[in-house]
Write a structure and sequence with these properties.
- The structure is a homodimer of 447-residue chains.
- In chain A, helix 1 (10-22) packs parallel to helix 9.
- Chain A folds into three domains: 2-40 and 59-113 and 243-312, FAD/NAD(P)-binding domain (3-Layer(bba) Sandwich); 116-239, FAD/NAD(P)-binding domain, CATH 3.50.50; 332-443, FAD/NAD(P)-binding domain, CATH 3.50.50.60.
- Chain A has 447 residues and is α/β, with parallel strands linked by helices.
- The radius of gyration of chain A is 23 Å and the shape is globular.
- Chain A is 27% helix and 28% strand.
- In chain A, the strands form seven sheets. A five-stranded parallel sheet of chain A has the order 3-2-1-7-17.
- The first copy, chain A, is built from 13 helices and 24 strands.
- The mean pLDDT of chain A is 97.
- In chain A, a hairpin with a 4-residue loop joins strand 4 (78-84) and strand 5 (89-94).
- Chains A and B meet through helix 1, helix 9, strand 20, strand 21 and helix 11 of A and helix 1, helix 9, strand 20, strand 21 and helix 11 of B.
């Protein structure tokens, strides 16, 4: 039995490790286009800012260690160019020559790549994008002398890169085409808290201002919007990613309505023996009850496990859905969310009620507590909690979102939340936990 | 309609407020034996140590504000002496005279009181106990000149009082009769971490050493165990509490097998029109499927709400069970738990598997993460998570226990935990959350 995995990130490495574990006699090959595997793109902003001293730390295993500990053949700087699904081979280019590798099961884990907007002047200016830790060194050198930097995109990536640039002492202008920051995952009450924190840190936040063109001017770059031009030293694009589907499409793998690869819950594609996992594939949203494309590491890791398991023992593990749990931060302000936001619920035709409350993270009399804003969205008819967003200057908000994620997954109502046996001590939580306060507010006096 | 609530702590104040809210025309009277209501006994150690500047901060409302904002008659320094369930009155002593107050619904929320062990010499030495914030002033004065203090009891109260005494610069000897700290709620792996932290802070931890006698010697106190005597300046007892059932027993209220008051899920006692809530009553344990007595504030608050609601609108709210979620700390070491421990599960005849793993709270490369120990207990046959214990130098461990509490309440299996959509970003969690790592370990390679 030969298992070949294309892509050495979270999903691919998980798939290879799982296949090896379940099939000790299988030959497992991991093909990675760069020099790193098990790399963590989420850490890039912190390697860029220097908070994490080297981009090399943004990986769990060296290729050599992964290979020897797991008995997996790891091919780095190896680009999978073509898949022959009938002959069950994959063509891999490495060191200038192409090798055909045979497989009985193939796992595609080619991930996602940054979206570069089709702007006038973009090919000339070549704004920085980030997806792989190896890009940090060149980017750091290029940004070294820049004093004033434009960031295009106020989503997760744009926000996190802005933190890095502020920490590097740059003057940052952040352009977001929508009327608020993080417009997809968060509702306005939460976006507003972030906007204020960014402004307080000196960031020029330019909302409702889509960038229309870039142009070079002397050694600088002009960023043009509908109403204005700004001269900056460099431009960073962080408007999101799209699935890396080229290899899959060439192989005849079916895409879903989101444009990402469609799989079943064993991570099987439409082609027998070919699995896919990670940012490349669609995920099933447990609240919306349909496929979505939300490319985040935890699901990628689990899909990798599921793909790797089924590649060697069909039916041994089945992927569940997601609820869109996500966390970000800007300096000491943390933002976390799960389930559906109010606007997202409305867009999907759901009749919801919501509340946004402010509560402390510790007992009122206990030092060190901070105020957090909790927005909770519940289905009007059933009282089911559909989503929660939390923002505040403590990483604990991520844990509130985790707790909410399980509540949303399990279909808990606001009354279930009220009665859940959440713990208390003055140094860790108020006796009425912020999530319980939100649920009580939604009950309108019923409890 | 007249509602009388006896006891102004968490449960009583919640009951009074809820009755008022649901029955705007009712007369509601809150009878409290001390001068404070809505007081927070959990904060006592921190008022004693000075971390919280005054014991007066350990309350949510002044009696006057509670009375005026809620339109509730608040009688402080008023002791309920006797209940006449046929005549529907309660005798309340206040300012030297006794008044009979009529009620249509009565809520007993008399709480719990510290256990004073029946030791030789205990009446002479009168060791300090703590239950009410008002006790802090006298205790601080008495402890002022003490250099060396013995604490009897290594449960929650003993541990938290030890922190206070250490913070006050005292030399502390902690006596625990069992062979480890927190022997009820935690398993040995977790107790051991606490023991090491206490020793590192200079605490003499004396395990398996029940105190047998106390005696005065000059201005000091001798603490005698089976094998040794220690001379100290004062003694603090923190071995736990028992329910304050005297008034209930006099009124003919039925007790359950735990010795606390038995109620149904509306918090009704066996006597029509009499409700009970808080530390006085038994709670239904959702894993053990039987009544237990675990007196903690979150359940007390909710029971108060339920009792107050049903006192005025019968059937309007029903209490759910608990899973024994609890949190404590010693200085910067936090300990949290939910569900059943391994020993507790075994005592209850459950066939379980368990694991204790060590994991980091943030991505490996991210600064500021700490190692936490997670112990997870699952039912062998079903894979259901029955309990989780977490210990580490970050208050986030409490949030892990909260998340686990919901998982245990909802009957989630280790596979459900693995697939739950817990969030990730390097500054708030590793991509494999410590709870997922524990669940994976228990799966023995299945995922």
């Amino acid at each position: 039995m030969r298992v070949v995995v294309i892509g050495g990130g979270a999903a691919g490495a998980s798939a290879a490790a799982r296949a090896r574990r379940l099939a000790p006699d299988a030959e497992v090959t991991l093909v990675e286009a760069t020099g790193m595997i098990t790399h963590a793109p989420c850490g890039i902003p912190y390697a860029l800012s220097g908070l994490v001293p080297s981009y090399r730390m943004l990986r769990t295993y060296s290729p050599e260690r992964f290979a020897s500990e797991r008995r997996i053949e790891v091919l780095t700087n190896a680009v999978a160019e073509d898949v022959d699904v009938d002959g069950r081979t994959v063509a891999v280019r490495r060191d200038g020559s192409v090798q055909r590798i045979r497989w009985d099961a193939l796992v595609l884990a080619t991930g996602a790549r940054p979206i570069v907007p089709k702007l006038e002047g973009v090919e000339d200016v070549r704004p920085l994008t980030f997806r792989h830790p190896e890009e940090v060194t060149a980017a750091s050198a290029r940004l070294g002398s820049a004093r004033r930097v434009a960031v295009i995109g106020g989503g997760y990536i744009g926000v996190e890169l802005t933190e890095a640039l502020v920490d590097l002492g740059k003057e940052v202008i952040l352009f977001e085409m929508m009327d608020r920051l993080l417009p997809g995952p968060f509702d306005p009450e939460v976006s507003k808290v972030l906007e204020e924190a960014m402004k307080a840190a000196g960031v020029q936040v330019r909302l409702s201002e889509p960038v229309r063109y870039l142009s070079r001017k002397g050694g600088r770059v002009v960023v043009g919007t509908d109403g204005s031009e700004e001269e900056v030293d460099d431009v960073v694009v962080g408007i999101g990613v799209r699935p890396n589907i080229e290899l899959a499409v060439k192989a005849g793998i079916k895409l879903g309505h989101t444009g990402a690869v469609e799989t079943d819950d064993m991570m099987s594609t439409n082609v027998d023996g070919v699995f896919a996992a990670g940012d490349l594939v669609e995920k099933f949203h447990l609240v919306l009850r349909r496929k979505v494309w939300i490319p985040l590491a935890p699901a990628a890791n689990k899909e990798g496990q599921v793909a790797g398991a089924n590649a060697v023992v069909r039916g041994s593990l089945r992927m569940r859905g997601i609820v869109g749990t996500a966390v970000t931060r800007f300096k000491d302000l943390y933002l976390a969310r799960t389930g559906l936001g109010q606007e997202e619920a409305a867009r999907n035709g759901l009749d919801v009620e919501s509340t946004a409350i402010v509560a402390r993270t510790k007992a009122g009399y206990f030092p060190g507590g901070v105020e957090v804003t909790v927005k909770m969205v519940a289905e009007r008819s059933s009282g089911k909690v559909l989503g929660v967003q939390v923002v505040g200057r403590d990483p604990i908000v991520a844990a509130y979102a985790d707790l909410s994620a399980v509540m949303v997954e399990r279909g808990m109502t606001i009354e279930d939340v009220f009665f859940s046996d959440i713990g208390y001590m003055p140094a860790t939580a108020p006796v009425w936990h912020p999530l319980i306060v939100a649920a009580r507010t939604l009950s309108k006096g019923r409890f």
